[in-house]
Amino acid sequence: MVSHVKSFAPWHADVLDDRYLRDAVREGRERASRHRFFLRGPVRFYMELMCFLGAGFDTDPQYPWATRILEDQSIPELLRADRLHAATITYLDRVAGPENLYATAALHRMTSIGLDLVTAGGATFEISALAGMRRLYPEKCEFIGQPALETLIEEGTRFATAHRAVEPADRGFCIGMMFVFGHGFASDPLLRWGQEVLVEQQISGPESFMRLRGRLRNYLEAISGSMEGA
Length: 230
Description:
Blueprint: H1 2-8, H2 10-13, H3 18-34, H4 40-53, H5 64-71, H6 77-95, H7 101-113, H8 125-136, H9 138-144, H10 146-162, H11 168-181, H12 192-198, H13 205-229
């Protein structure tokens, strides 16, 4: 499975050594088992979704279609995996676009302007955050809808408060991280670069987010490099 992740998601493998990849695979298997995915194919597909949507995709308000399918355990494992695969294809067709055109454009915007959703202006924080997400990745916003985005803003705001994000820019950055990497990005085993910053309790809130922005830039450059070399 580690070898599969390296070939399927090289942008993760480029910034994680094998020890951390093994930890991520073990956690992925454990997460899959909570949804009664035990067979090789469904477990591997679950791991692939963690690479694309984030480790916490099964409870993420951005992906209610995944939550519904996984929670309906009256359906046999292989059939649920097939339905999850079909729903994922629909999502990627609409959000990634033909030949990943929309996803590539969004990545370029992230690389150039970062994930600071909230900029100076007269609008409220919530309106600014919504506008920032639409500016960053309009196709994804259109697919998941405003109610899910508003839920993500609420969750991101709570997360920001817990991690001492006082400035609107830092709170907006937290929401941006959730929007792009999933609402569980801070505990995602494939995003160790983010965890390492957030668990350093001796670092002040503003400094931790400054460091996190630096790690993010390095990670986005690694993704861009992987895509260019594909």
